[in-house]
Amino acid sequence: MAVKEKAGRKSPPAPKGGMTLRQRRTLMGLSFITPNFIGFFVLNLIPILFALLLCFNKWDGFNPMEFVGLENFKYIFTHKVFQQAVWKTLIFTVFSVGVTMLLSLGLAVLINQKLKGIGIFRTAIFFPYVASVVAVAAVWQMLFQKDMGLINEILRFFGVTDVPGWFATTQWALPGVIIVNIWKNMGYYMIIYLAALQDVPTSLVEAGMIDGANAWQRFWHIKWPLLRNATFFVVMMLTINSFKSFDLIYALTEGGPGTATTLLSQYIYNQSFISWDYGRASAAAMVLFAIVAVITLFQFRLEKKFSE
Description:
Elements lengths: L1 H7 L12 H34 L2 E2 L7 E2 L3 H8 L1 H32 L6 H13 L2 H11 L6 H8 L15 H26 L3 H9 L4 H12 L1 H16 L3 H6 L11 H10 L4 H30 L1
């Protein structure tokens, strides 16, 4: 009888004017995500929509907007500087992504050893990534000086008489920028590869050693297939960051000499804050967004194909 009475009892009703547990949890969840939604709406969504509107208008920031249709896109696609910026951005991205990925992977393999003091080397390689962009640019500008720079002095030591002018010449400015960009970023992606290497099961490596596989065979047939996800992340992030690279190049060359290192991000900046034409700048920004979106979708499709 007592058991039946206990089973028949109902949970006490929620207090008048109070909230149920479900309502309190919902309110708590909303309190966490609402600031993020507000920030995204104010700082991301509204500027994106405004930039999309500006693509079809002429505006200098002071006078009223003037609707011009597709004139902004017609201008940039026929503008020689924009065409050069697209081509140089592609060159910058290809070399930055390829060389940075290879060097990062090589460094990760080298320092993935249980040696005394290895943490010092890891920190030293990672440090350029967190160093000030302005400080990095100032140091490399001195290293790449044509007459007294350390790089050219080393080249002269090895018998090179016609040393490059680096940032002072249109021929060598872009290769110099690519070198600095690779040096600054490879430490971060080395950490990504190092974490992935340390997740490789030691039992598989030991099995390979027992089967007589040498170091290269163990890496290529055991470790490299297990680094696919890390490689996909590294390539995707490097590609996106290379296309939108601005601060380091601006600090090194300001897009010069002439337009030798004017990439798409620098072109957008010049149209906005030098030419004061926000319509053309927005049109160029949308083209940059479209290029990055297409490449990213292609990378995702490629990753999905290889994972099947």
